[in-house]
Write a structure and sequence with these properties.
There is one protein chain. By secondary structure, the protein is an alpha/beta fold. It folds into two domains: 44-185, Immunoglobulin-like; 223-294 and 304-339, Immunoglobulin-like (Sandwich). It contains two helices and 21 strands. It is elongated, with a radius of gyration of 29 Å.
Length: 340
């Protein structure tokens, strides 16, 4: 076969070769533009945040979304990762929705991820250390997030239109999360033992609520103020929960399946405190939840006073171990030594 070496043929070949070179250089850009048309989610950002924090001994728990205020674009998603052993939820409620129990959810729960546009509730189940939950925000708006387990653990996600600029990047939120966690767990006031109503008194946890522009963070100390107390037979020991948010129990012997309700062998003192009697370290008695009343708000009925005190009278000598049925896995345990 004869090969055409004419000048016109050579020019045509050179022109085609030049076009091929240009296309080869532009090929990545071409496929990127095609990808944006076919897969617009490639333009969307994926943000990261943290849930909670804890001290090395697990005794201090930061009940917070870290950071608790984030600005993103419509269509972006946020993935929250659990840091502590104390469980939490990531929950977004519809407008005017009554806060449901953490056991019921919206009702129901989303597994792994959810989409929230403000019209219908979206919530994770209980999340534990290392687990993640992602929420996609398809429309602009300002959305409040809460934890169904812990009061005063709130935050805000500001979702802006794509044409609007964002005030911060991921590196800023990473630093803010670390700084907020450190500040919560290092709070000296929350570590101070507080009031004793009686000589044989034990503080049952304590904590504080910290407000920010995005919501509320809390720190709870999951410890008995005097984990070991010595009394004499016939004495009464009084436990008082001074945490503004977190419930606790004082449980001797067998742990109940439902920790919220007190055991049936209790009486109620004149001041509303629950009272049990133990005649042997083998006996069981359970306080149920002892917890401060929720904060009153204008426009809502006044909340009744919480049951914050529990008393036990010890009839006979012995060593009586006890725990908080909610937080014993965090090390919240104690014992009463009863002498003759």
């Amino acid at each position: 076969m004869a090969i055409d070496y004419s000048q016109s043929s050579v020019k045509q070949f050179a022109s085609k070769f030049q076009l091929l070179r240009i296309f080869t250089k532009l090929q990545p850009v071409f496929f990127f533009l095609v990808g944006l048309v076919l897969f617009p989610q490639l333009l969307l950002a994926q943000w990261n945040a943290t849930i909670g924090g804890q001290s090395q001994d697990l005794g201090r728990q930061g009940l917070a979304f870290l950071p608790n205020e984030i600005w993103i674009h419509a269509g972006d998603s946020i993935t929250w990762k659990m840091a502590p052993d104390e469980p939490h939820t990531v929950t977004f409620l519809a407008a005017d929705q009554v806060i449901p129990p953490f056991t019921e959810g919206c009702p129901g729960f989303s597994s792994g991820s959810a989409t929230f546009d403000g019209t219908a509730c979206a919530t994770s189940p209980l999340l534990f250390q290392g687990q993640k939950f992602t929420v996609v925000f398809p429309v602009a708006g300002n959305f409040k997030m809460i934890c169904l387990v812990h009061q005063n653990m709130t935050g805000t996600v500001h979702v802006l239109k794509p044409s609007q600029s964002l005030p911060h990047d991921q590196a800023f939120y990473d630093r803010a999360a670390q700084e907020q966690s450190t500040a919560l767990l290092a709070d000296e006031d929350s570590s101070a033992l507080k009031h004793k109503h009686s000589e044989n008194g034990v503080t049952v946890g304590h904590g504080e609520i910290v407000a920010t522009g995005g919501g509320s963070d809390s720190v709870s100390v999951m410890r008995f103020g005097d984990p070991e107390i010595t009394v004499h037979a016939g004495d009464t020991v009084e436990w008082t929960n001074e945490d503004p948010v977190t419930p606790h129990t004082v449980t001797f012997g067998t742990e109940p399946q439902d920790p919220t309700a007190p055991s049936s062998n209790l009486t109620i003192d004149a001041d509303g405190a629950r009272h049990g009697v133990l005649k042997s370290p083998a006996d069981s008695v359970h306080s149920g939840f002892i917890q401060a009343a929720p904060q009153d708000r204008t426009g809502l009925a006044q909340a009744p006073s919480g049951v914050t005190r529990f008393r036990v009278t010890f009839s006979k000598p012995g060593i009586y171990p006890y725990l908080c049925a909610l937080h014993d896995v965090l090390g919240m345990k104690g014992r009463v030594i009863v002498l003759p």
